[in-house]
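Exercise: predict the fold of this chain.
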Amino acid sequence: MVAYSIKDLESLSGVKAHTLRIWEKRYKIIEPSRTKTNIRFYKDDDLQKILNITLLNRKGYKISKIAEMPSDEIKQKVAKYTEVGSVFEDQLDSMMLAMFELDETKFNIILDHQISAIGFEEAMNIVVYPLLDKLSIMWLAGSVKGVHENFVNNLIRRKTLIETEKISRCDCDATFRCLIFLPENESHELSLLFLHYILLKNKAKVINLGMGVSLIDVLEGQSIFKADYVFTIFNDSFSDAPLQPYLNEMSKNLKSAEILISGYQAASQKLDLAENIHILNSIDHLKEFISSRKNKLNKSL
């Protein structure tokens, strides 16, 4: 059983702890459990109920009216909104509910609706990544099961591969060649796949070496492909070791390419960057970099 504090509920639902306490005292919407030492805590069912109530409240239902509804009626009303709603906060809650229920059909309907309405890239930015941020909070708090995390990651991975395949046959710019990879001990594959998508969308020619790639294999790949740009991400890797020596080796052995890095370790460690290494802090930063390099290349032709 997972135990949530009221601060956990606030982080995961977006409802202030003060408001949750009012709902609890005035309307008896949730009843906290207590440990043997009389510390209050909440269960999975409480979190799911709060997410349902929050969604209905955003749709205009008064809390006093929701409090009078049987649980089955709340679930039925939520079901009507989780498939066709357009406000991303509602979709976020709906996707979390689908995750808790391991409901693949509902999850895909919600995500496909967003992709159809605003495009894959924007759906990733305003729905998927906020969802993954919430999952990270839940994981750190020990309040999400491995099966839920795997469920979400697998569905988003499949969706990203499908969207990437749609544009992979489009014309690419052979003068903008990119090699991308994740180093050893790095597991954020979704970030790498989304990077692949963004680069292809910007008509780059891309080779994706995948996860857990040794520096020797990167150098071998570069000797064959001769990329203009080498992209990688440091989040989990080098958390217990300095990143600087690894970057020094990259810079020394990849002199013909510009090396582009991102991730928590790249941002948090104090680094002395060689001239051919650049830190990209966001997707927007990446797109600005691509645009500036292409403009510079076009002017030189």
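Check your answer against the key: The first strand starts at residue 33 and ends at 34.
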